[in-house]
Amino acid sequence: MNFPLNWEFLQWHLSPVALQLGPLAVRWYGLMYAVAFGVSYYLVAYRLKSEDWADIRRSHIDDALTWMVVGVLLGGRLGYVLFYGWSYFSLHPLEIVFPFRIDGGLRFIGISGMSYHGGLIGFTVAVLLFCKRRGLSPARFADLIVPAIPLGYAFGRVGNFINGELWGRIASIPWAMRFPMDPAGDAARGMLPPLRHPSQLYEAAGEGLLLWIILWTFRNHSFFRGRTLAAYLVGYGAIRFLIEYTREPDAQLGLVLGPFSMGQILCTAMATIGMALFLASGRKRPLA
Known about the structure:
Number of helices: 9
Strand content: 5-15%
Structural class: mainly alpha
Number of domains: 2
Radius of gyration: 20 Å
Order of helices and strands: EEHHHEEHHHHHH
């Protein structure tokens, strides 16, 4: 079927592949995550150059980058397995890290599935271990890097959008759109997928751009010193919780606690931890 080039059918005109080099396909999804790391790194480097961070050097950030990338990748994968796919992966444990399935032969299936909340846990553990090894204050280090993170995350969600995944719930709003991979339709047989919220873009704008503007604007204010991570946890948790009402729940889970999705439960825990950090820091001298 031929589809008009308009907003409703925009996904039919977007290719998930940014560059094809023979058998190697460079996908927008991976490219956007690389851009996300690059943008966040640039913003941190900018702060080191333009602000007073005498106790943290550029070499610390360069060395920590590998720790953080590994923490995000391992945490994101294990978080997906535990939070979203345990019923399956508990029966197929090799597929957690092994990109092949053995079912009468060896079949390549790739490795797919990452959890933001798992990635955040992995990232936090990596930063804590790095700071302990280098004798740095984790709160001070968080004050430096956390305000740069949401803008990078916005690029990741744009990658999800271009990839045509993690779409929203069925909607009748003027800016709703159809997603080719939506199992609720079959375009080849003339059955169009339903109109849905472009929730990936909501997340890019809310958890990404909006949260970045807030944290970046107030990054040097005294009431955020030593509490930037808490502000991030509360801000992200609250924004994502609301946006989850427009996002289609994971097919293998659905809604897991009344009207709430797994993402909302994890965001509630995230925001609660953030509030606890705020309250704890208010009972003693600032950590930064």
